[in-house]
Every structure is written in C-alpha cells, then in structure tokens.
C-alpha cells in the first residue's frame, strides 16, 4: 500500500470516528432541547426529566467495564458498530414511546449504544498513529465531537418544532443505522500488515481478571484521581454553579446567563484541541500541571474578587472552559502505564473515573453550598459561591499533588 493510500485510510478513519463522536453527543444531550415538548405531550414533571437525564449517565458509567472487555476481546470496529446497533433500537423506541418507562428504556439503550464511542475511538487511533501524534488526534476527535452538543441545542429544537420530536428521533435512528454501516465498512483496528491487539484467546474469567489487573495496577490511583477532577470541575461550573452564580450575584436573566455559559461551552469544546497542539512543545506532565494550576487560579480569582465587574467575571468563566482539555492528556499518559492487551479495559476504567467525578464533584459542590446561610430570597449568598470556588481550587490542586507523585516508568508493562 502506498504512502498516499495509507494517509487516505488514516483520514477516513479519523473522519468516521469524528462523525461517530458527534452523533454520540447529539444522542446524549438531545432531551434538553425537547424537554418542553416531553412535558407537554407525555405529562412529564421536572423531576421525571431529571431521572431521564440521570439514567443515561448512570447507564454509560456502568457500561464502561463491559465495553473495555469487548474492545480488548473483539476490537474497536466490531464493538463500536455493534453497540451503535443498540442505539438504533433506542432511538426508535424513544420515537414511539408513550410512557415514562418506555422513554427511560429508550434512553438506557441509547446510552449503551454510544458507551464505546469515545474509548473505542481512542484505542483505534492508538493503532493508527504514533505516540507523538496520538494526543493531538485524540484531542481532535474529542473536540470535534463536541459539535454534537451544539447541534443538540438550537438546531435540534428547530427541527423538533418543524417536524415534531418523534419524527426527529425517527430521523436519528436512520442516521445511527447509517453510522453502523459506515463504521463497519470503513473502520479497521490496525493498519495493513499490523495485527490488531485483541484478547480473543482469553476466557471470560481471564477477561474479568484483566479488569481487576487494571484496578490493581500500582499506577492506576494516580491517574484515577487526576481524571476524576480535571474535566469534571469545568462541567460542575458549566452545569451547576455558573447559572445560579450569575443570577444570584449579578441578577442576570436567562438570555444573559445563556450567553456567558455558551461562551464557556465553546471554550470547553476547543480546549482538548488546544492542549493537543500544546503537546508539540511541552511535555504531558507540564501541561497537566499548567492546566490544574490555571483552573485553580481562575476559581480563586472568581472567589477573591467579590466586587468584580460583570465583564471580568464573565471573561474568567469563559476562560475557565479552556482548562478541562488537559484531561485527554491524562488518558494518553495513563495509556503507557498499562499492558497493551488491557488497552480497552484501562481506558474505560479511566473514563468511568471521569464520569464518576462529574457526578461526585457536583454533589460535593451542591452540598457545600447548603452549609451557608441563604439570602432573604432563599438563594445562596455571594459568600457561599466564593467559598465553593475556593473549594474547587483546593480540590484540583490536591488532585495534582497526588498525580505528580507517579513513579517514573522505565519500561511499559508487558
């Protein structure tokens, strides 16, 4: 195979993985745009919508270990395309469901269907690109995939208004089916002449022992702690603290708050790509340290300037979005510390730690806010928000102090 055709093959694989990542994000965040329609047509309460959203992330978290076993046993091509087939069924059920239980089942199936999209893509990219290029390609795939988050907001809401939300999900089921065929026909687990690293010879018991081996790895806790905090801190501010903070401190309306949070969302989308490019000039450890210190400094800035003008606070929050992208470097750094045959299981374990961190840090921040007296209107006081930003800064710095103690790696585990 010529160099040009190999380059073309790499490009086609990157593009199909990006397309899969975009679709995964659309399916994940699609209910936000159609929430009013669900409340009107199905009679949902806000609590029910919360359950519908939460069960998706819970199902994804629970699927990470099985996905790791599947990737290691069958490779990324079969695993990703096979799981997306389940997402097709989920989207179809969502389109016709008339009850809360039916819609919940559909969301669980969609969550299972996209549960291998990110880590499966990472494992495939590792086979096709050198260790020097891998962080940049992984960052590109993750950043580009965030386009799906934007598509699942105003564009999906417009489509829902134009065609109805049920027809939108019929359309998504067709798009997902096309994605299954595209992944199966285009994706390859390794370049021509290079064997794919799979564990087809392992029994189920050996597969499960491999999972235990990942968690028993002496290096694992260092990476788990850092990835538990890196991107989840940004998600916490973006989805939990940011809106109420802007409302209670500056009395911003929904549109004005939305502008600030949209800006933060855009920088969060670009952040992995930025850190992937910076890896050309700095080591991964330097960038992780810089990202952690940068996030802590902005949180402290938000905490220690109680009378900051709105433009400065808005700028700091938007800049905070840039900090979470170093999480992708933790994945690429951690990959070297696990044996090659545990590629899928080690990456999904790290992803499970990251998803758990997203839930845990929001719970801790919300619980911490409740310790402070509320204002006469019943909302948290500015002091409560300032203290919570200090807490977030301390959390990320503490995680880095653990991460930096990773023992040096002389040779990659066999």
Number of helices: 18
Order of helices and strands: HHHHHHHHHHHHHHHHHH
Helix content: over 70%
CATH architecture title of the largest domain: Up-down Bundle
CATH topology of the largest domain: Growth Hormone, Chain: A
C-alpha end-to-end distance = 30 Å
Q: Given the helix and strand composition, which structural class is it?
A: mainly alpha
Per DSSP E runs of 2 or more residues, the count of β-strands stands at 0
What gross morphology would you assign?
globular
- Biggest sheet character: none
The gyration radius over C-alpha positions equals 21 Å
> Could you tell me the strand content as a percent range?
under 5%
Assigned CATH superfamily of the largest domain: MFS general substrate transporter like domains
**Poorly predicted parts:** none
The CATH class designation of the largest domain is Mainly Alpha
Total of domains: 2
Average pLDDT confidence is 80
């Amino acid at each position: 195979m010529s160099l040009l055709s190999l380059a073309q093959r790499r490009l086609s694989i990157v593009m199909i993985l990006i397309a899969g990542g975009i679709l995964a994000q659309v399916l994940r965040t699609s209910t936000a745009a159609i929430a009013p329609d669900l409340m009107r047509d199905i009679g949902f309460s806000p609590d029910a919508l919360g359950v519908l959203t939460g069960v998706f992330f819970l199902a994804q978290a629970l699927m990470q270990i099985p996905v790791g076993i599947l990737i290691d046993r069958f490779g990324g091509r079969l695993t990703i395309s096979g799981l997306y087939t389940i997402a097709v069924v989920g989207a179809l059920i969502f389109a016709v469901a008339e009850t809360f239980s039916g819609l919940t089942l559909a969301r669980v199936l969609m969550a299972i269907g996209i549960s291998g999209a990110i880590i499966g893509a990472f494992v495939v990219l590792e086979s096709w690109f050198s260790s020097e290029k891998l962080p940049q390609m992984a960052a590109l795939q993750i950043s580009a995939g965030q386009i799906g988050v934007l598509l699942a907001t105003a564009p999906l809401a417009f489509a829902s208004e134009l065609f109805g939300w049920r027809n939108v999900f019929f359309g998504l089921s067709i798009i997902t089916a096309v994605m299954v065929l595209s992944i199966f026909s285009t994706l390859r687990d390794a370049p021509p002449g290079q064997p794919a690293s799979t564990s087809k010879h392992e029994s189920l018991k050996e597969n499960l022992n491999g999972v235990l081996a990942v968690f028993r790895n002496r290096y694992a806790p260092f990476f788990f702690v850092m990835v538990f905090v890196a991107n989840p801190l940004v998600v916490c501010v973006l989805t939990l603290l940011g809106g109420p903070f802007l409302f209670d401190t500056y009395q911003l309306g929904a549109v004005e708050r939305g502008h600030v949070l949209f800006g933060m969302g855009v920088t969060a989308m670009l952040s992995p790509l930025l850190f992937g490019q910076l890896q050309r000039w700095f080591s991964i450890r330097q960038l992780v340290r810089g990202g952690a210190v940068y996030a802590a400094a902005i949180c402290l800035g938000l905490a220690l300037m109680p009378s900051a003008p709105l433009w400065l606070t808005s700028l700091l929050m938007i800049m905070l979005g840039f900090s979470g992208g170093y999480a992708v470097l933790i994945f690429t750094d951690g990959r070297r510390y696990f044996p090659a045959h545990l590629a899928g299981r080690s990456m999904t374990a790290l992803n499970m730690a990251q998803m758990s961190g997203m839930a845990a840090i929001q719970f801790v921040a919300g619980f911490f806010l409740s310790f402070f007296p509320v204002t006469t209107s019943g909302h948290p006081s500015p002091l409560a928000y300032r203290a919570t930003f200090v807490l977030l800064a301390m959390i990320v710095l503490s995680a880095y102090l653990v991460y930096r103690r990773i023992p040096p790696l002389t040779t990659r585990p066999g």
